[in-house]
Every structure is written in structure tokens, then in C-alpha cells.
Amino acid sequence: MVYDIVIIGGGPAGLSAAIYASRARLKTLLIEKNGCGGQITVTDLIENYPGFNDGINGFDFAVKLEAQARDFGAEIMYDEVTNVENGEVKKVITVNATYETQTIIVAAGTSVKKMNIPGEPDFIGKGVSFCATCDAPFYRSKDVLVVGGGDSAIQEALYLSKFAKNVIVIHRRNELRTAKILQEKIASHTNISIIYDSVPKEILGKDSIEKVTITNVKTNKDTDLKVDGVFVFIGLVPNTLFLSNLVLDKNGYVVTDENMNTSIAGIFACGDIRKKQLRQVVTAVSDGAQAAISAQGYIENQNATTN
Q1: What does the alpha-carbon distance between residue 206 and residue 154 come to, in Å, rounded to a whole number?
Q2: Which residues are catalytic?
Q3: Average pLDDT by consecutive 10-residue portion of the chain (307 residues)?
């Protein structure tokens, strides 16, 4: 079987592409490594997506997108893509199978960036977390450290404050990079404090985390903080290791034009994996819709040329 479109990744961009492609009656396969939804499934509240005045839980939003894609006829397969091959008929190679397709939409998203400091690898899953929604209940009435100063870090700090006794946010700059409305919210929480101009240096403990050594980037002075857990939100890394032929920027993001065309005709990229200024759910679903329309146009042109 040759698909019209194979979509790699089941986050908001991939699911949006699947909705538009399958609704256009194109034979559509979406391949997702873990579970549909991507990063938003661990987001407690999405409050800046148009149409949801009171916000919506990230997991609930992902469930709705997946159901909508399936209802229009998209196939969804759980597997890991290891390579893509260009040709008259393109191939998407996974751990378990090879799929042939006229077009490919890459929507593989991003993964969380690690701090790469001593102690971090030893305590991942045992005190070091990248998901407050997943792990906050384990830190009820305890002290936790949140690393980062962007929207994700502050949103997660706000969520942690419902459980933890004290939430300490550490940020390498002298001011937060998050939206003003989130800064206003965090200022109203008495159990959240912020340490500026500082970075974690080492995580220490035996069977569990006991303290974190932090360094002031201006004075180089080290200080030990007694905490029970560390939540890391310092950025994202694009999942592009399996893409050997596409043009990437210096940070590893896929370079596209405004229509989601990559450097190879018939292969498109959308969502957080592509080079762009704003990475939000609303821009991801927009990218996905455009990628599907561009793929449809490519298929129609190829068919017209063949006939």
C-alpha cells in the first residue's frame, strides 16, 4: 500500500495535519513514538488557546485532537521512525516496518533539554523531573527547585505550588522571560521565591536528593540549597536525529518556507521541529494545517504530471 501522506509525530501539529489531510480524503497514516499529544499532555492548563476562556487541560486537548483525526479516517500507528528515504515513492522506515508514501510531513516535535551537571543522571526519575503535572503529588509539603525562567518553568512552578511547601525558581538572568500575566500570578504566591543570576552546579544526595549547589553567574559564589526535588524547564531540543537529508539550522531545527516546504520536494515539516520564532500550540496546529494543504497540492501536481 502507498499512502498519500505519512505524518511523523502525533503532537498538535501532526494531529492537525492528520485532520486536514484525512478530511480531504487523502489516505493518511500518522506514526507516533509514544502517545498522541506530545508535550501538551503534561501541561496542566493551556489558557492561551483561542476559544477556551477558562483554559483546557493539555491531556484533554490532545484526546480531542486524536479523536477528531480518527473520526475523519486517519490511521494512527505507534512506532518509532528511524529514517526517511526520498524517491519517486518515499519511504518512512520504523523499528517494525517500512511505509511507502507520496508525501511525508515531519511533525516530530522536541524533547526536553537536560542541565548536564553532576548528579542529574543519577536522580532522573528519583528526584529530577521534567514534568510537574506528572510528579508534583510526590512532593506534597516538601521543598522543590524549578530551573528556568520561561513560560513553561513558571507555569510548572505555579502548579507545583499547590503541592509543595516551598517552590524556589532559579534563573540565570536577572529577570524572567515569561509573559507578564504569569509574572503577576507568581508574585501572588507566598510559597514561591525566585533566585536570579544563578545556575545549578551539582545535585547531591545518597538515596534521594538532599541539596543542590547553585552558582551565582556574576560573583561565582556557590550556595547550597536543601531541596527534595528538582524540576527542569530550560528549553527544548528538536527531534531531528533521524533526518539525514533535510537542511537544518545551527540549532538542529528543520528549515522550511511559509508553506512548510523543506529542502526536499514532497517532504514538509511543521510544529516545534521547524525553525520559527514562536513555538506554541496555536502555531503548531496552524503549521499542521498548512503542511497538509501543501502536501495535497504536491500530490495533485504529481498526479497531473503523471497523467
Answers
A1: 29
A2: 131, 134-135
A3: 97 98 98 91 86 92 97 98 95 97 97 95 93 91 96 93 97 91 92 97 96 97 97 94 93 97 98 93 97 97 79
